[in-house]
Amino acid sequence: MELSTVWFAVVAFFWVGYLVLDGFDFGVGALLPVVGRRGEHDRAAMLQTIGPVWDGNEVWLVVAVGATFAAFPAWYATMLSAFYLPMLAILVALIGRGVALEFRGKRDDPRWRRRCDAVVCLGSLLPAALWGAVFGTLVHGLPLDRDGTYAGSVVAVDGLGGVLGAAAVLGLCVLHGATFLALRTTGGLRERALRVARYAAPAVVLVVAGFLGQVQYARGDAGSAGVAGLAVVALLVASVAAWRRADGWAFAGTAVGVAAAVATVFVALFPDAVPATSTAAWSLTLADSVAQPYALRILTVIAVICTPLVLAYQAWSYWVFRRRVLAP
User: Fold this and answer.
1) d(CA 87, CA 11)
2) Residue 82: which pLDDT band, with cuts at 50, 70 and 90?
3) Alpha-carbon distance 22 to 172, whole Å?
4) Chain-wide mean pLDDT for the chain?
5) Cα dihedral sign for 308, 310, 316, 322?
6) How confident is the model over 182-233, as pLDDT tens digits?
7) DSSP string, 45-106
8) Is the pLDDT assigned to residue 132 strictly greater than 80?
9) Which residues, listed in sequence order, are joined to residue 274 by a DSSP beta bridge?
10) 3-state DSSP assignment of residue 287
11) Is the CB of residue 269 less than 8 Å from the CB of residue 258?
């Protein structure tokens, strides 16, 4: 197997890991006005569930972007050129969310906390939707010239793929966040989270199935169809588990659902990095965008050393903070 193929799988792994881990953070933030509507104690308990881990989860974004840039510089450059505005909006939203999470408790002022909660909610909704729009648009292709350079407008996110992608990833994050809250809280907060998961699941399954169907229609093959089917089955398992109050199974189902849905996009893309809508021959392939072999060998050594350390640290942090947060 060529190193370019190995690194495509590594990049896909990091993006999948990021959206699985930060996905429930986004879901918890988005659900603040819904599940936490009873008062400050509930909202504080919700944020406490992600407090020890949200910044570690965002490390996966740094690693995913860094791996894309290092292993496939032309892919990174084309995506940044095409999605400059949504990427900028995601960055601003993530910064605002991080500041709000860190400084929410620094002032004993209800109005200050409500404003921080609003920033956390918006800073969770916007990135989730925009990541979905970016991946949904990417898999349907971008206007490229014969050199693989982006040749479209400043607003690359458009079309049915972008809209369905935004709705699918946002719905997945909300459902993932609801099952995470059910797993990590007690009392009325857990009951409201389970209620959201139960009633949101059918709509999320339909939207995700529609999005993955579009992906399959645009670029799919047998491999992507199998992964897409796994995503839908996992979400159905999560729905049944939520009704049976099996919190662990529900969360595992949404985690697998998010992972498989994102993986479907990468499987459908392969062996291209960016499909061209103008002329298929102008598509940016992995071979066109990959770094030099020497650079890939250095990256492989770094990844072999560092990735297990990151995984071990994250596993340890989740183990330490595994207990439920007591809610009123």
Assistant:
1) 18
2) confident
3) 11
4) 89
5) negative
6) 999 988 899 999 999 999 999 999 999 999 998 998 887 889 999 999 999 9
7) HHHHHHTTTHHHHHHHHHHHHHHHHHH-HHHHHHHHHHTHHHHHHHHHHHHHHHHHHHHGGG
8) yes
9) 284
10) helix
11) no
**pLDDT value for 121:** 95
CA dihedral sign of residues 130, 131, 133, 137: positive
pLDDT digits (tens, 9 = 90+) for 113-126: 899 999 999 999 99
Q: What's the token pair of residue 27?
A: 């879901």
The CA distances from residue 88 to 42, 85, 100, 155, in Å, are 32, 5, 18, 12
Helix (H, G, I), strand (E, B) or coil at 29: helix
Other C-beta atoms closer than 10 Å to the C-beta of 320 total: 10
CATH topology for 3-142+150-270+291-321? Answer: Formate dehydrogenase/DMSO reductase fold (1.20.1630)
Q: Which two tokens stand for residue 190?
A: 């857990």
d(CA 272, CA 139): 10
The reported pLDDT for the residue numbered 327 is 61
